[in-house]
Amino acid sequence: MAENKKKLDPTEKNMAGDPIPSRNQNVSDDPTMRRAGGQVVDNDEDSMTAGMNGHLSVQDLWLFEKQAHFNREVIPERRMHAKGWGAWGEFTVTHDITKYTKAKIFSKIGNKCKVFSRMSTVAGERGAADAERDIRGFAIRFYTEEGNWDVVGNNTPVFFFRDPMKFIDLNHAVKRDPKSHLRSPNTNFDYWSSLPESLLQTTIINSDRGIPSSFRYMHGFGSHTYSMYNEKGTRVWVKFHFRSQQGIQNYTDQEAEMVNGKDRESSGRDLYEAIENGNFPKWKMYIQVMTKEQAKNHPTNPFDLTKMWLKEDYPLIPVGEYVLNKYPDNFFQDVEQVAFSPANIVPGIALSPDRVLQARAFFYSDAQRYRLGVNHHQIPVNSPLGVEHPHDFHRDGQMRVDGNKGAELHYRPNSYGAWQDDPSLEIPHDEGGETKRYDYRADDSDYFTQPGMLFNRMTDEQKLVLFENTARNMGDSTMQIKHRYIRNCYAADPKYGKGVAEALGIDIDTVDLEIKAPKSREEWEKLNARDKELNYPTKPAEPESAKNLPPEGRDTNAKDPKTLIDWESDPYLL
């Protein structure tokens, strides 16, 4: 019996170490209870009343202060990436990339800096389960001597769309239905199937890598195209990769049900227990580099967030490594209040014409101003810890607690030499053009080549898992949506479309498989309007191929997760 129970505990394969007791015995050196103003609390047990059974008294200052603070104890959760965990660590430069960047952190092999990393699910709320089928947020902050540098990405090298106008729609599609307040597979797949460029991302989500068994067992990606420039001002385009040295390991749908049924904090518990047990997770950092000339001659848009740069054309160049070796002393202070933004860059690193990255550089910071306040940079985890003399220009605002610059004058220009900028740090210029709304479909409509490539890198059993996962997760989506998604899959590879159709219990011969990648908004809208007569709900599919699976499902994990560390041998990195 014990043997069977052990076999059915999917979390054991993560080897985080012995469970950490939930007991917390930390007590302050001076345990005296005080009010916010420093006054000692006289009574924390009995409210002040007018007689034994009389009304409460407004003069019970502690009761009202205690309740008023509690009412404001929960800050707005992140709209996306609400459920996350994080840790402190250290980054070390291991290879010379000074020919690409003048960033001081990379000026010498052996340079080190403090880092903080937060990893998360994306769609779920702050109380959602960790082991859900979803992409994972993957953010890391480098506390360099030139300021904070944030790489804010995911555990996938691509994303669902290439224009930021669709950001809010993605949020609405993966969150709860406004009437039922339930998750809606129909909404998810209506949105995804209507954006053919999302197929590579949804293929990854529904593959056997859709539910990482632990944050430690997943790779991280900057996903976007960024740029680097050296001392001479020579600029190149780059992508950032963070390869897990633990390897790749995932849960099946069936294992995830077991895990979530007994522990909704499985990923957070794993990270906490691994670090507390001294089992520090490590990642190696790489970059892909594309010259400006290569970008101009690239067969597809090199700034398209829905595509990878092929590793055979742009091999990964080693840069450094980091280890997460300290779990936060207080979760709320560090993990809940850390405020990442792509706007946090340093000299030698810059953005690119990637439309989504351009938008995120403003909107992420603005979200934190709303969520945490305009002075959130004063929270220690958001402070430029690597800068010797931080001296920002901002003043006043809610919760200003750093002295507010005292009597220092607060304007420029002035006659006293205060607030000097440094024109030498200006980044290389971008090419311009006529300002208007450009239809990105006209620029690049190759939506299906890379999903087909990824599909054909999978083993037959991985393909079967992809079919089964897709069918299960489409739930009661309308027949129109299921036909549309099958059509997209078929365009990537006929076997992909046929496999999904079979798992859904749909005769492939009933599906209109003719598809021409839309090269304009008009063509796209016409494509999505097809099969209107099929706009009726269906029953959730139970794939025939999955009916006699063992309790743990169809496990396609590599026997040794470390065999998927190296980028050269990882089939899911195209």
The average pLDDT score comes to: 93
CATH topology of the domain at 84-185 and 212-382: Catalase HpII,  Chain A, domain 1
The residue ranges in which pLDDT falls below 50 over 5 or more consecutive positions are 1-5
Question: Share of helix among residues?
Answer: 25-40%
Write the CATH homologous superfamily of the domain at 84-185 and 212-382: Catalase core domain
What is the level-2 CATH architecture name of the domain at 84-185 and 212-382? Beta Barrel
Rg value: 26 Å
Q: Give the overall silhouette.
A: globular
Give the terminus-to-terminus CA distance. Answer: 44 Å
Strand content: 5-15%
Q: How many helical stretches?
A: 16
Structural class: alpha+beta
CATH class of the domain at 84-185 and 212-382: Mainly Beta
Structure summary, number of beta strands: 10
> What is the element string, with H for helices and E for strands?
HHEEEEHHHEEEHHEHEHEHHHHHHH
Describe the sheet with the most strands.
10 strands, antiparallel
Outline of this structure?
The protein is an alpha+beta fold and 574 residues long. Helix content is 27%, strand content 13%.
Spell out the key features of this protein.
single chain; 574 residues; alpha+beta; Catalase HpII,  Chain A, domain 1; ten-stranded antiparallel sheet; 10 strands; globular; disordered N terminus
